[in-house]
């Protein structure tokens, strides 16, 4: 075995050793799992919101009250789906931000690709005989060529700590 070959093998062995020592969660520390609640609300209702993220980018969904006060914020990885259950009756707004490298203390992505606002959502529960009927909303997120956020058109919720 030549000296050059020995050095190459030693370098490969060191690289493998270093990669095995690094915790796997350190690599994705700024990319939480789908369903990681950044902010949560009292969820003792019946309403259900299902979100399908068809984007190639991660997103954070934010549910607010009518005054744009954040009630819930949850992480949603690219090409994944999420169910938010227990939503109480009422009218809510739904916002999304998409990007890379989630910064939990700033409450936003370090690289933001867009801010989006959906139409208001209404959740209702009714007792019908012996059964309870409640709202189930499903939303498919598809990549857009541009954001619908323009300063002054709507206030994006602040979820920073």
What does it look like?
The structure is a single chain. The chain is mainly β and 161 residues long. It has a domain at 30-141: Immunoglobulin-like (Sandwich). 14% of the residues lie in helices and 45% in strands. The chain has 2 helices and 11 strands. Strands 1, 3, 4, 6, 7 and 8 form a 6-stranded antiparallel β-sheet that branches. Strands 5-2-11 form a 3-stranded mixed β-sheet, with no helix packed on it. A hairpin with a 5-residue loop joins strand 3 and strand 4. The N and C termini lie far apart (58 Å).
Structural class: mainly beta
Q: Mean pLDDT, as a whole number?
A: 85
| Gross CATH architecture of the domain at 30-141 | Sandwich
Write down the overall geometry: globular
Share of helix among residues?
A: 10-25%
Task: State the CATH class of the domain at 30-141.
Answer: Mainly Beta
Instruction: Note the run of SSEs as H and E.
Output: HHEEEEEEEEEEE
Could you tell me the strand content as a percent range?
over 45%
- Distance from first to last alpha carbon: 58 Å
Per DSSP E runs of 2 or more residues, the count of β-strands stands at 11
């Amino acid at each position: 075995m030549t000296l050059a070959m020995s050095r190459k093998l030693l370098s490969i062995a060191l690289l493998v050793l270093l990669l095995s020592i690094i915790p796997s969660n350190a690599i994705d520390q700024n990319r939480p799992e789908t369903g990681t609640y950044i902010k949560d609300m009292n969820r003792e209702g019946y309403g259900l919101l299902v979100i399908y993220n068809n984007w190639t980018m991660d997103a954070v969904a934010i549910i607010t009250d009518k005054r744009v006060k954040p009630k819930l914020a949850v992480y949603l990885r690219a090409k994944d789906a999420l169910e938010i259950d227990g939503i109480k009756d009422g009218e809510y707004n739904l916002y999304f931000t998409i990007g890379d490298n989630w910064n939990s203390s700033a409450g936003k992505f370090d690289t933001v690709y867009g801010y989006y606002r959906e139409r208001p959502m209404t959740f209702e529960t009714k007792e019908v005989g012996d059964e309870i009927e409640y709202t189930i909303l499903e939303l498919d997120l598809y990549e857009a060529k541009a954001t619908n956020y323009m300063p002054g058109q709507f206030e994006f919720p602040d979820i920073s700590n």
